[in-house]
Write a structure and sequence with these properties.
Strand order of the largest sheet of chain A: 2-1-3-4-5
Largest sheet of chain B: none
Number of helices of chain A: 18
Largest sheet of chain A: 5 strands, parallel
Number of domains of chain A: 3
Number of strands of chain B: 0
Helix content of chain B: over 70%
Oligomer: heterodimer
Shape of chain B: elongated
CATH architecture of the largest domain in chain A: 4-Layer Sandwich
Radius of gyration of chain A: 38 Å
CATH class of the largest domain in chain A: Alpha Beta
CATH superfamily of the largest domain in chain A: PPM-type phosphatase domain
Shape of chain A: elongated
Largest interface: A-B, 20 and 23 residues
Number of helices of chain B: 6
CATH topology of chain B: Four Helix Bundle (Hemerythrin (Met), subunit A)
CATH architecture of chain B: Up-down Bundle
CATH class of chain B: Mainly Alpha
Strand content of chain B: under 5%
Number of strands of chain A: 20
Structural class of chain B: mainly alpha
Chain lengths: 566, 122
Amino acid sequence: MPLEPLMILIAEDSAADRMLLSSIVRRQGHEVLTAANGAEAVEAFRQQRPQLVLMDAMMPVMDGFEAARQIKALAGETLVPIIFLTSLTESEALARCLEAGGDDFLAKPYNQVILAAKIKAMDRLRRLQATVLEQRDQIARHHDYLLNEQRVAKAVFDKVAHSGCLNAPNIRYLQSPYALFNGDLLLAAFTPAGDMHVLLGDFTGHGLPAAVGAMPLAEVFYGMTAKGYGLSETLREMNAKLKRILPVDMFCCATLLCLSFQRRSVEVWNGGMPDGYLHNIASGERTPLTARHLPLGVLSPQTFDDRTEVFPMAVGDRVFLLSDGVIDTCDAKEQLFGVERLQQVFAANRQPDRLFEEIEQALQDFRGEARDDVSMVEVSLLEAAQLIPPPLVYSDSGQSCPLDWSVNFEFRAATLKRFNPLPYLLQLLLEVHGLRAQSGALYSVLAELYSNALEHGVLGLDSSLKRDASGFTRYYQQRNARLDELQDGYVRVHLQVAPKDGGGCLTIRVEDSGKGFDVERVMARPVDGIRLSGRGVSLIRQLSRNASWSDEGRSARVEFFWEALA
Amino acid sequence: MADTHLDRDVLSALQEVMEDEYPMLLDTFLADSAERLVLLHKAEDAALLMNTAHSFKGSSSNMGAVRLAELCHELEQRAKNKNLSGIEKLLGEIDGEFAIVRPLYEAERQRSSPTEATVRRF
């Protein structure tokens, strides 16, 4: 390959040498600039930017060493090779040439063959440097581009993620600002009944691929939570959606919680995440919330298992969830931090509010440096009154509000097994503007009436089981087992809306096919709502008007009223 | 002719490289050298003497003036070592050597292109 012609600056004070060298270089096909001293050389370089310099060391006005230094400074990152022309032989003088930025020497008398070879070699070096710079800039541009993409994705996602209630007073969490790109995902939202759903997820992979699944997952989580769906329906939908859209090797480990402040319980589903912990503050005991399922997005909708576990909680108790970044942290010897070390931190913890810091410190001590892919969240149970869910936002004007109607539903065994009618019923009722202000109470009462009818009525479960923590677990095991085996039975829901004095009245009647209960005995209990069992009836009586039971407890009736709207 | 003053091989290489500009190169060298000789005689400090001798050595070697380059090298070394006693004698030798090679270069110039140079002037 013929050498591409270069522009070469020759700086040489001896006119004959300059002329000779110019001719040699021109004959080799290059363009020549000449300078008779160092100052001229620097000026010629400044104006014409030659690619290579042949520089005499000893020159008047400014010598070659100084000129070389200035030219190298002007050239910046670009490699402009400087070959010193010299009959210097002392090593000290040659060293000065190199110190001044010289790249090579050419001795006098000039040898054409050697000069051509040196120009060629220097040109190769120059091109190499140019390529390296170009590629470095390209990498920097790509890097900026990638960071910008991540910034945009993060900004969009933060809008979505923070539309929930992560800032609620009972939630503490710790996440790297770029956790999304580690595949970590933390979501929280209130249900219409004032329960709280929390999801800590961990997508496979890193970077943007790990982040893309977060959007649809968050959408399902928020959408279904806001509409009043329970964990099971939400899980089924999330699993089906991820299964549908994600490639086979991508899935999402997740723990989903439903904290009920009114019922003082937490419902848990853990698919592939490390154990979470339910911390009973009174006893100091920590109950592990172990993974019992495959991650979301692995199983087909037919084989997906949405079974949850329910644990009682007292006010002040905490649920602690963490990502695998915590226990998978390695030390210098490739040893894992592990669950045992985590439990040692738990055991040493004296102030519950300092737990995160203590875990972080332990990880840092173990690993020797902090890591940025650790996610932790702690949710505590507060008095229901301490939490005020944000008001729901409605987009319609209310002109088409239905005010005089009634409707009857009968949900039979096969439907009761797998369908939760509450979100539909609630949506229907919230078409009535006057009811919107009490949507939380409405939903809570409706949910309580329905679960009483299903669990105590149709399934015949004994609510006194829930008197202590172990019975609580047994109760929900039995609930799942009996629901699986259910062959017949029904829950009927009758809704009636009627206008009244400019406002209106809603009557709800819920009937079941069960054995009923001793209404008088239950009604004789004080309305307190502290005990684990039988709380449903108290709750209903507190939140609705004129609650009454008939047909030996098989039929419950409540009313809601609203005033004329302003 | 074995020449202790001029390396004929260097001259023919120069002619090959310079082609038409060969006579001008010879002219330039002679004019340059005359200037340098004046500088050498006027030099008042060792550093200037050393630098001038160094440059003169370089171009002499390029032009094939072997003996002249040797003498300049000796002068450069002595100036560098500040060994200036008897330097006048060495300068005299350099004058003498240049007086020998000058007519040789002029003859070479005439031989290479007697007319070319005059044509070029216009």
